[in-house]
Specification:
alpha/beta; 17 strands; Peroxisomal Thiolase, Chain A, domain 1; 2 domains; globular
């Protein structure tokens, strides 16, 4: 299935940044004094994650991480910052200047100024872990409409702040902050421009929000300390009806064009990197609903944990660089986010700089 619009977009370049500090799961578990025999690695599949350096001079807050990913992306692109028409920031965590949480000025405006994208339109999007996908969705539509020629979508996530709060506060594995122990810090940036070749194109990107589930995962100031916390109802989030949202939505989308999932001939699938069990459950649900085997699943959650908005593009970056995903292949990116957001992004990636 391809868009019927005169224009299409493509992924032109991808950048990523990971803090160098590694926190193995046993070291994190040691901080959870209220649950001394917690087998976090078995439950989540996460063996380690990257964590930010708390020193201000390290520049590894949300903003600093985003700057590094954007610079990496531009180094892989044929465009310079001054040529960008749009800069979109998609961070959930918006920490800058010693832990201050920013709403205004927007991260996108500050990033564009620092990068030198002086003529770019700038705005932030806020859509939980689907933030990067939402930014790509909007930029894709802007390019297809002929409003802009190109643009950058970027996110820096200082997510382990919620892990710090969880480690200090949780009392058992049923605590609503338990999922916070699976997160990791990272940043990604992706540059889109117009596609002139079907072998290098975003074929479609569509999203759906199911507000019925919006209460199942909420980020906010802790109700016990001065920390920032994430409260998740894991049991409800992973119920079968919740996991069927993606295949139901995607199947209906394809049916409008008289196609099936098998007709799409995807080479790879990238699920949101919540945990190894989650990825397995969603892929099995998709296989049962579509009645066809899933494509090869790409994951990085074991090494980096759940990196929130950045997870899909971090997985793409790592696998394309390692050669464990081939160029010219067809990729399916499946978002899963609080809200609850489901959807699908289909793209053939051939020349993207990484």
């Amino acid at each position: 299935m391809t868009t019927t619009a005169a224009r299409s977009s493509r992924f032109e370049a991808l950048g990523a940044y990971l803090p160098p500090t590694v926190l193995p799961t046993p070291d994190l578990v040691a901080q959870v004094t209220a649950v001394p025999e917690l087998d976090l690695q078995r439950i989540t599949g996460v063996t380690e994650r990257r964590v930010y350096d708390p020193r201000p001079e390290a520049g590894e807050d949300s903003y600093g991480l985003a700057v590094r990913a954007a610079l990496d992306c531009l180094s892989n692109s044929r465009y310079g910052a001054a040529e960008l028409d749009v800069v979109i920031s998609a961070s959930i965590t918006r920490f800058k200047d010693g832990g201050r949480f920013y709403f205004e000025p927007s991260f996108a405006t500050m990033l564009a100024a620092e990068l030198g994208a002086r003529s770019a339109i700038t705005f932030d999007v806020s859509n939980a872990c689907a933030g990067m996908m939402t930014g790509v969705y909007l930029l894709d539509r802007m390019i297809r409409a002929g409003v802009v020629r190109n643009g950058l979508v970027v996110s820096g996530e200082q997510a382990t702040k919620v892990a710090e709060t969880a480690a200090a506060e949780i009392a058992d594995t049923y605590d609503p902050q338990f999922a916070s122990l699976s997160v990791g810090d990272s940043a990604v940036a992706v540059l889109l421009d117009e596609s002139v070749d079907e072998t290098d194109r975003i074929h479609y990107v569509e999203l759906m929000t199911c507000s019925e589930y919006s209460h199942l995962c909420l980020g906010m100031p802790s109700d016990r300390t001065e920390g920032i916390a994430l409260y998740t109802d894991n049991k409800q989030m992973h119920k079968e009806d919740r996991l069927r949202l993606w295949p139901g939505f995607h199947g209906d989308l394809l049916a409008k064009y008289g196609r099936t999932f098998a007709d799409e001939n995807f080479d790879y699938i990238v699920q949101h990197q919540v945990g190894t069990r989650f990825i397995e459950f969603v892929n099995r649900t998709g296989e049962a609903e579509f009645k066809t085997p899933m494509p090869e699943s790409l994951a990085v959650v074991e090494e980096f944990g759940n990196t929130a908005t950045t997870s899909h593009f971090l997985a793409l970056s790592r696998h394309l660089k390692a050669g464990t995903a081939r160029r010219g292949a067809k990729f399916l990116l499946v978002p899963a986010a609080s809200g609850v957001v489901a959807g699908a992004l289909s793209a053939t990636i051939s020349t993207m700089g990484v």
